[in-house]
Write a structure and sequence with these properties.
Elements (H helix, E strand, L loop, with lengths): L4 E4 L3 H12 L4 E4 L11 E2 L10 E2 L4 E2 L5 H9 L4 E3 L5 E5 L7 E3 L10 E3 L4 H8 L7 E2 L2 E8 L5 E7 L4 E6 L1 E4 L3 H7 L1 E3 L4 H9 L8 E7 L9 E7 L4 E6 L7 E7 L3 H7 L1 H16 L8 E6 L34 E3 L12 H24 L1
Parallel strand pairs: 1-2, 1-14, 2-10, 7-17, 11-15, 14-21
Antiparallel strand pairs: 3-4, 5-9, 6-9, 7-8, 11-12, 12-13, 16-19, 16-20, 17-18, 18-19
Helix pairs in contact: 1-3, 1-8, 4-5
């Protein structure tokens, strides 16, 4: 190899690809537009109270009984896990003017949802430690990729200081949502219409979602015989789960039933006021005593969502590998959870796509070295 493999995106897929390439002795550079690593993995603590724990505002669970890639990696990296808390009754909220119903929780013993102690960020941090820190370049936004007649790739990126850098590459792995590639990166020569259409049709996982976590000094709902699990027909949160650490503080996280466009019109303050009112209705006056309410609306994150993502998911069948063809075949490779058809939307899908991308890259490198 004369030039590095460029990985665009420092989320779970990008970091896993970088780790595997480094392990194989293949030079790579990871270019990330954000000022942090992790992508859609976002674990936050309460400002000035890190002792309360880290809480996931992005992906939260994995299921080791049928997700072997992440289960093996978590074990390899020696990360601490905890099972989703499920002791006690659930609450079902059917009507705005009536109190919620309490019901026994029915859960299959074969379907255990597992969380990472310290949040999924612990997986990101552990992966980052397996690669040289200098290969990850933050606030580096890839804008253009050129392929010359000799088959050489040049990657152009804007830097935080307003300057532009150009990097030669042997191959490019896109470890970010395909819609962002289609909408934000210019290709010369152009990609095939078939490939562009395929990328534009792939909904970005979580992009229309928002997530909220209410943090308390203890999980007081457990004292009431409640699991923390809620199903609601009236919202604003349609699902709520216990997000407490193993010890100490308590936390509840919820998924919204309010569409992205409606949340934008309401504004964050009104949305969070509705959340607080719902929690008080469900759990009583003690729900007023949140140490903080952490909130992330992924639909307003320009590094995640495009306008097409505001609509609810419609085309799950589009998930899987984009069809790279023509002059770009064997030059660009796709990773990311949307490009794994079997586990799309899961951490498992992100990891499997990264391993597949690295497998393809190694084959390209070996062929190039033989030429």
């Amino acid at each position: 190899m004369n030039n590095p493999v460029i990985i665009v995106g420092a989320g779970l897929s990008g970091l896993r690809a970088a780790s595997l390439l480094t392990e194989q002795g293949i030079e790579c550079r990871v270019l990330e537009a954000r000022d942090r690593i992790g992508g859609r993995v976002l674990s936050k603590s309460v400002p000035n109270r890190p002792d309360l724990g880290n809480f996931d505002l992005g992906p939260t669970w994995f299921w080791p009984q049928h997700e072997s890639y992440i289960a093996n990696l978590v074990e390899e990296l020696n990360l601490e896990t905890l099972a989703q808390y499920n002791k006690g009754e659930i609450l079902i909220e059917r009507f705005e003017i009536k109190p919620p119903e309490r019901c026994a929780l029915q859960e299959s013993s074969d379907e255990k949802s597992i969380r990472l102690a310290g949040g999924v960020r612990s997986l990101i941090d552990a992966l980052a430690e397996t690669i040289p820190s200098e290969i990850v370049e933050l606030e580096t936004r890839v804008k253009k990729i050129q392929l010359d007649e000799a088959g050489e790739i040049a990657v152009e990126a804007d830097l935080a200081d307003g300057k532009t850098t150009k990097i030669s590459a042997d191959a490019v792995i896109f470890a970010l949502p395909p819609r962002l590639v289609a909408g934000h990166i210019e290709f010369s020569p152009s990609l095939s219409p078939n490939l562009i259409t395929d990328m534009e049709k792939k909904p970005t996982w979580m992009a229309e979602q928002a997530k909220v976590v209410a943090v308390y000094d203890r999980p007081f709902w457990r004292e009431l015989g409640l699991s923390g699990y809620v199903l609601s027909c009236v919202g604003p949160l349609q699902e709520i789960y216990d997000a407490s650490p193993n010890n100490g503080s308590g936390a509840l996280f919820g998924f919204f039933g309010i569409p992205a466009e409606a949340r934008e019109k309401m504004g964050q303050d009104k949305v969070l006021n509705l959340v607080e009112a719902q929690l008080i209705k469900l759990y009583g006056s003690e729900a007023k005593n949140a140490k903080a309410i952490l909130y992330k609306d992924w639909s307003s994150d320009s590094e995640t969502a495009v306008e097409e993502d505001f609509s609810p998911f419609k085309d799950y069948q589009s998930y899987g590998q984009p069809p790279v063809e023509g002059v770009w075949e064997k030059k660009i490779i796709f990773a990311g959870t949307e490009t794994n058809a079997q586990f799309s939307g899961h951490l498992e899908g992100a990891l499997r796509s990264a391993e597949q991308a690295v497998y393809q890259t190694i084959n390209l490198v070996e062929k190039k070295d033989r030429v």
